[in-house]
Amino acid sequence: MELAEVNIARLRHPFDHPATAEFVGALDRINALAERMPGFVWRHIDTGGSAPLSADPMVITNLSSWRDLESLRRFVWGTLHARFVERKAEWFEVFETVHFAMWWVPPGHRPSMAEAAERLAHLEQYGPSDHAFGWDSAPRDPHHREDTEVDA
Known about the structure:
single chain; alpha+beta; 5 helices; about 20% strand
């Protein structure tokens, strides 16, 4: 299985506002970093062919898939990306609803925005489960091995 994730955020200011400039200016660099990371599989790139998660132009969405939970964790918390996460309050409003979800998908599956919206809604309504979960409730990664024997 591969790990899909969706993250939505609502900007405090428009893309072209000076208060958002540092964040917007780093988007291409951060996306390129993600794509170079070991374990990165795919990310949704909006070509106008899919409905966004929100009609609000201030809402931005990230939808991607990764080989495993550890690969995503390493990118989010172990790279330059972490500095932007730490400063998210500068650029984004606080969401009153669930804004991040992960779930397992078969290899090669590319989640749609509709699927991502459904996973967010499910997590909001029912809480964490195998269907959708967050960092604190992530089930054991099916790729993780706890070897109990030492190789000779």
